[in-house]
Amino acid sequence: MGRVPLAASSFSGLTHLGSGKVREMFAVDGPDGEPAILLVASDRISAYDVILPTEIPDKGAVLTALSLWWFDQLADLVPSHLLTARVAEYPDALQPYADQLRGRSMLCRRLDMFPVECVARGYLTGSGLKDYQRTGAVSGHQLPPGLVDGDQLPEPIYTPSTKAPQGEHDENITRDDAVATLGKAQADELERLTLGIFRRATTMAAERGILLADTKFEFGRDRTGTLRLADEVLTPDSSRFWPSDDWTPGRSQPSYDKQYVRNWLTENGKNGQAAELPDDVVAATRSRYVEAYERLTGASFDDYLRAV
After folding, report:
1. Gap between the Cα atoms of 174 and 140, Å rounded
2. Please, which pLDDT band fits residue 2 given cuts at 50, 70 and 90?
3. pTM confidence score
């Protein structure tokens, strides 16, 4: 994959809809003329809501490859927004950018997105741990006393959150808050889907020696009213994946996600700073992302890169 950092300016002439922490989004026409959105995953990495200046090579390709795999695994539970990830099938206007797009982009339906992040947790860590330590509960779920970082919860819980603008923190909200925002029928449907997907993914990951600690999903409706799974799904950016054979509650767990970067920032007093990452941290982080893909899918990441 190319090592030139990807940004909106890499695709001059396209209608840029916005930049996320990792993705660039463009308005395009789909294969059938339907309004579509092009999602391009860069190699940027963020931590503590700050985009770091150092990129992780091939990270965007890992996120894309895993999302495509999971969309396929979950298709019987909920359809996704994916139209195609084959660059040869993209509209003619995108063909000049084929090299930049190959392996790290998806052409997707435009959706009316729900204004909540749908989070499921099977283990206590991260912001959920902080809420628990303060209140004994997470998003209104009262939990048993005495739990520590990394403990498995009695059962998976649904803990929706706000969608904060870039640079700000998502805030955990209660299910009642979600009902107030979405209406009861829609809030209940998203909770049911979120926990159903989480249970499916938890079982599949466990068969591969990985614990799925928590994850977040985004959903929206297309122009026909069909509810679809959107954005990325069950990637190291949207999930905490832990090797099951190293799981020890009471400490920060080894992980296949960007927790390694967060830990380095914390240990070096750089929380919330746009700090340059040293080469060894970059290499170790890339290795974790690639290993997550290969352990979950059973496929070679190099083979994926050769095939796209």
Report:
1. 5
2. very low
3. 0.93
Cα torsion angle, 72, 241, 202, 221, sign: negative
One DSSP character per residue, 160-228 reads: -EE-PPTTS---B--HHHHHHHH-HHHHHHHHHHHHHHHHHHHHHHHTTTEEEEEEEEEEEE-TT--EE
pLDDT band at 165, cuts 50/70/90?
Answer: low
Residue-wise pLDDT for 85-117, tens only, equals 999 999 999 999 999 999 999 999 999 999 999
- List for the chain the helix, strand, coil content (%; round to 5): 35, 25, 40
The answer to whether residues 157 and 138 touch, using CB atoms and an 8 Å cutoff, is: yes
Report the distance separating Cα 53 and Cα 44, nearest Å: 8
Separation between Cα atoms, residue 161 and residue 175, nearest integer Å: 9
pLDDT digits (tens, 9 = 90+) for 204-257: 999 999 999 999 999 999 999 999 999 999 999 999 999 999 999 999 899 998
Provide the pLDDT for residue 1: 39
Tokens matching residue 89: 């099938």
Distance CA 121, CA 136 (A): 15
- Contacts of residue 63, defined as CB under 8 A and 6 or more positions apart, other chains included, come to 22, 41, 104, 232, 235, 236, 237, 289
Structure tokens at 65: 């490859």
Give the count of beta carbons closer than 10 Å to the beta carbon of residue 15: 11
> 7 by DSSP, 3-state: which?
coil
Alpha helices per DSSP H over the chain: 59-73, 98-101, 126-135, 175-182, 184-206, 259-267, 279-297, 301-307
CA-CA-CA-CA torsion sign (170, 85, 219, 109): positive
Domains of the chain: 1-110 (3.30.200.20), 113-265 (3.30.470.20)
Separation CA 212–CA 194 (nearest Å): 14
